[in-house]
Amino acid sequence: DAVLIEGLEKTILVDTGPPSDRASLMNELNKRNIKKIDVLLLSHSHADHIGNAAEVIENYEVGSVIEAGFPSTSPYVKKYYLAVEKKKIPLRHNKLGDVIEVGDGAYLRFLTPIPEFDSSKNINNQSIVTKLVYGKMSVLLTGDIEKDLENRLVKYYAGTNELTSEFLKSPHHGSKTSSSARFISAINSKVALISLKSKNDFGHPHDLILQRYEKHNMKVYQTNLNGTIRVLLGKDSYKISTEF
Questions:
Q1: What is the DSSP letter of 210?
Q2: d(CA 155, CA 186)
Q3: Which bin fits 52, alpha (ψ -120 to 50), beta or left (φ > 0)?
Q4: Residue whose C-alpha is closest to residue 197's, from 18, 55, 14
Q5: Which of 21, 12, 70, 62 lies closest to 41, judged by CA?
Q6: 19 vs 32: CA distance, rounded Å
């Protein structure tokens, strides 16, 4: 799972994929002629999201790192922290309501952490949730959040349009533990983008979730079927292209 946001003023990389896909990530960044990543945003500490963080820091100019705070002692987390320390890169935890301006009025807003929500027992629910907004277009980036946090988000943002987004980066790779009916209804997206490995061990994306997306008339793109997915956002329109 890795999402590259190229704004007119700033470039943000959200997660870095697993070590097994390191070459693919680096090739894509190099293909896009990425020299500097202004913000490296790491949603949570699982290897399929943070597995190449150290290598990104070592091979690109990284302005700052934002994370949720990782209690994990995995080797990938340790390696990433060493790289941050070595390069003396500013590191901070996400704060609810923070905004990163990316250029021409586009911005990334942090929708977590939700007050009084205990994520200590579920690393997936430690995921940072953000919303990229450009004019009338928006993309909800969800990490690996599961139903408990989805429901809390819906309740917390009830009566607002904070969750409503044209695009949904599918939570937890299309797992049946996520994309609850209530959450999908609240987002009211037209497009779901699912990042996952072909023939993965978890059965992602789950048929139930694909059916739920279909019920809500969402167009679905999957990296295992479409390869790299590119979304070009205008202020009131978009264009999608895929690798295959």
A1: H
A2: 10
A3: alpha
A4: 18
A5: 12
A6: 20
Looking at residue 207, its amino acid is D
Is pTM beyond 0.70? Reply is yes
Say how far apart CA 216 and CA 227 lie, in whole Å.
24
User: CA–CA separation, 205 vs 84, rounded Å?
Assistant: 33
Query: Residues with Cβ < 8 Å from 88, sequence gap 6 or more?
Result: none
Q: b/e per residue, 165-202, with b = 16+ CB within 10 A? A: bbbbbbbbbbbbbbbbeebbebbebebbbbbbbeeeee
Find all residues with CB under 8 Å of 82, minimum gap 6, and list them.
Answer: 54
Residue 147, SS3 per DSSP: helix
Q: What is the pLDDT of residues 128-184, one digit of tens each?
A: 999 999 999 999 999 999 999 999 999 999 999 999 999 999 999 999 999 999 999
Residues ≥6 apart with Cβ < 8 Å to 207: none
